[in-house]
């Protein structure tokens, strides 16, 4: 077995301890990656608090990271030592089911393996070992720290937009302007859509426009909501807290879609809201290999990365505490190089 240094949980606390963990020896189609930067996601908080069904004791979170290949298995053909790579939320799948056959391994029926919590330990560590199929070449045009959140937040926004055929002339709304939402705005604008941010906070209007949105709709203003009834082809709902979906569904156009992506634990909705206008209610779980590779190419072409605040990994508890309070614009990324330092 290989060993590496990581930040590991005990119980449901966000006070993580620095420790040594094991990684498997390289299989023939494995690569070893020195993790340079890893994002901090709201789902990491949920996992640490025991809200997503993953064991919390001994958990090493982190599922959106960039780094450098340090070793390759005997049958690896796509990567060489020294290559820059990016890794997301999935590190293996069955490879043969209908979902895997179309590059939607995120919906694998029988063999999905997530980056952490499925007998795996995540990216808040200095090294990761995985099959080369689930690593992606990081384009030279992308900054590795700012690109790390593309591997979860970015692809979570990208797949629903591609499924909905978003392009020039589309009307897209993004509910919530956080780690997911700000990337949703950037990507939808780059696809040619007219983009509106939905927020309870009118003071975010300037930030929304700076990201490329044309408007901000205040969701506590009944007059604004009424005027926007049936306006949007796609609403990307990134809100992680419990909230009623009915007001958002009233903003969806005929045969349009509300895609719930913030994974709130409860999402009350009246089914009749779907009936009037033959509307669609959907969700999505990150992305498969086909769309993830496509996203990275698109972002390199358009110059899109996340707006990040980079912290040394030793400040992970601070990042989690501030994230829980919403005190970040718009994504924390941990610099893992301090794990090389001896205590």
Key words describing this protein structure:
343 residues; alpha/beta; Quinone Oxidoreductase, Chain A, domain 1; Rossmann fold; 7-stranded mixed beta sheet; 6-stranded parallel beta sheet; 24% helix
Describe this structure in words.
The chain has 343 residues and is an alpha/beta fold. It folds into two domains: 2-152 and 287-340, Quinone Oxidoreductase, Chain A, domain 1; 155-283, Rossmann fold. The protein is built from eleven helices and 17 strands. The chain has helices at 42-48, 98-101, 144-147, 153-163, 179-190, 205-210, 222-227, 246-249, 272-275, 289-302, 316-325; strands spanning 2-8, 17-23, 30-40, 65-72, 84-87, 90-92, 113-114, 127-131, 135-137, 171-175, 194-199, 215-218, 232-237, 252-260, 280-283, 308-312, 331-335. The strands form four sheets. Strands 3, 4, 5, 8, 9, 16 and 17 form a seven-stranded mixed beta sheet that branches. Helix 5 (179-190) links the parallel strand 10 and strand 11. Helix 4 packs across helix 5 (179-190). It is globular and about 60 Å long. It starts with a strand and ends in an 8-residue tail after the last strand. The model has no long low-confidence stretch (mean pLDDT 95).
CATH architecture designation of the largest domain = Alpha-Beta Complex
Count of structural domains: 2
| Mean pLDDT value | 95
Proportion of residues in helical segments: 10-25%
Category by helix and strand content: alpha/beta
Q: What is the H/E order?
A: EEEHEEEHEEEHHEHEHEHEHEHEHEHE
């Amino acid at each position: 077995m290989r060993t590496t240094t990581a930040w590991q949980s005990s119980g449901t606390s966000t006070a993580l301890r620095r420790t040594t963990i094991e990684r498997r020896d390289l299989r023939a189609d494995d690569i070893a990656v020195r993790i340079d930067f890893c994002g901090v996601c709201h789902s990491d908080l949920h996992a640490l608090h025991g809200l997503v069904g993953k064991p919390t004791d001994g958990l090493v979170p982190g599922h959106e990271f960039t780094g450098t290949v340090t070793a390759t298995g005997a049958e690896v053909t796509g990567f060489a030592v020294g290559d820059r790579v990016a890794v997301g939320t999935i590190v293996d799948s069955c490879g043969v089911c209908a979902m895997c056959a179309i590059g939607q391994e995120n919906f694998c029926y029988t063999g999905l393996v997530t980056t952490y919590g499925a007998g795996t330990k995540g990216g808040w560590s200095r090294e990761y070992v995985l099959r080369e199929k689930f690593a992606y070449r990081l384009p030279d045009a992308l900054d590795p720290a700012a690109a790390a959140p593309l591997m979860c937040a970015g692809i979570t926004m990208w797949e629903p937009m591609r499924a909905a055929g978003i392009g020039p002339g589309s009307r897209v709304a993004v509910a919530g302007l956080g780690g997911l939402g700000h990337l949703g705005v950037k990507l939808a604008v780059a696809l040619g859509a007219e983009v509106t941010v939905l927020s309870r906070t009118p003071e975010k209007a300037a930030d929304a426009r700076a990201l490329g949105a044309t408007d901000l709709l205040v969701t506590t203003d009944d007059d604004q909501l009424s005027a926007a009834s049936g306006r949007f082809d796609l609403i990307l709902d990134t809100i992680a807290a419990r909230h009623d979906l009915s007001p958002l569904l009233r903003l969806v156009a005929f045969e349009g879609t509300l895609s719930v992506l913030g994974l709130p634990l409860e999402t009350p909705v009246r089914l009749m809201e779907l009936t009037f206008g033959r509307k669609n209610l959907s969700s999505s779980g990150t992305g498969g290999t086909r769309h993830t590779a496509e996203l990275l190419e698109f972002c390199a072409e358009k110059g899109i990365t996340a707006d990040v605040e980079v912290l040394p990994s030793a400040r992970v508890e601070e990042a989690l505490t501030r994230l829980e309070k919403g005190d970040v614009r718009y994504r924390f990324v941990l610099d893992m190089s301090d794990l090389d330092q001896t205590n």
